[in-house]
Amino acid sequence: MSQPSIILAPSAAARVATIAAKQAKPAILRLAVEGGGCSGFQYRFGLAETVEADDTVVETDGVRLVVDAMSLDLVGGATVDYVESLGGAAFRVTNPNAASGCGCGASFSV
């Protein structure tokens, strides 16, 4: 059985490429899920230096999104986007596995 994949939207890939270039780092965005947040789990983003052995990797426009195996169970099938609005700009996860989420979109429950 193959694990559901995850999608890196072009807007998010472009933002990662810009940030990585400014910091002289590889264009690799790591998405992890950790316990906490107002709904039980929260998303954590960061630039990664390398890809780990158990990571799932998807690529959009030359930018890689990496997700560890444990986090992928909670975000499989999700889309990572970069959204700019009046409230600010942020990476946003549209997660079909989330039963509920908080108003800010930073945490969720399953």
Overall pLDDT score: 88
Molecular shape? globular
Most strands sheet: 6 strands, mixed
Strands of the biggest beta sheet: in what spatial order? Answer: 4-5-2-3-9-8
Strand content: 35-45%
Low-confidence stretches: none
Pfam family, one: Fe-S_biosyn
InterPro entries: ATAP, ATAP_core_dom, FeS_cluster_insertion_CS, HesB-like_dom_sf
Domain Core: 6-105
Organism: Novosphingobium capsulatum
Describe this structure in words.
The mean pLDDT is 88. The two termini are 21 Å apart. This protein is of the alpha+beta class and 110 residues long. The chain is built from two helices and nine strands. The strands form two sheets. A six-stranded mixed sheet has the order 4-5-2-3-9-8. The protein has a three-stranded mixed sheet with strand order 1-6-7. Residues 6-105 form the Core domain. It holds the Pfam family Fe-S_biosyn. This is Iron-sulfur cluster assembly accessory protein.
Brief rundown of the structure:
This protein has 110 residues and is α+β, with helices and mostly antiparallel strands. It has two helices and nine strands; from the N terminus they run βαββββαββββ. Strands 4-5-2-3-9-8 form a six-stranded mixed sheet.
List keywords for this structure.
globular; alpha+beta; Iron-sulfur cluster assembly accessory protein; 2 helices; ATAP; HesB-like_dom_sf; 6-stranded mixed beta sheet; FeS_cluster_insertion_CS; 110 residues
